[in-house]
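Record 1 of the preview.
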Amino acid sequence: MRFEVPQFIDVEDKIFGPLTFKQFIYLIGGAGLAYVSYKLVPFPFWVILSGAFVIAGLLLAFYKVNNRPFIEVAQNWVTFMIKGKLYIWERSKPILKKPEPAPVPKAPEKIYTEKTVTDLAQNLDILDSYRQ
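->
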């Protein structure tokens, strides 16, 4: 049996023309806030405030930083600014004591008898004769 493997599952669907649903909401939100500020704020302040809302909507909808959506970058920045900056180093594992080396077994002491001593002396004499 053959099955089709879905491709491009991480690409969002285009719902409103060339815009995804998120992009459409960001743009409508920026335009809506600009309109509300037009009704509530005097004209000189409205120009500045509505410009900020429109630019924020455009950034949220289209701008990417290192191929990440701008909303994630803004969220990470706000979290970084609010969160405490005190970093304390802690050991992740307890300190392990070095294992004591295993005792080396001692070779049994060799007991030399008169025969072994004479054999050794004879071997030494033979070795001396080869060296001369």
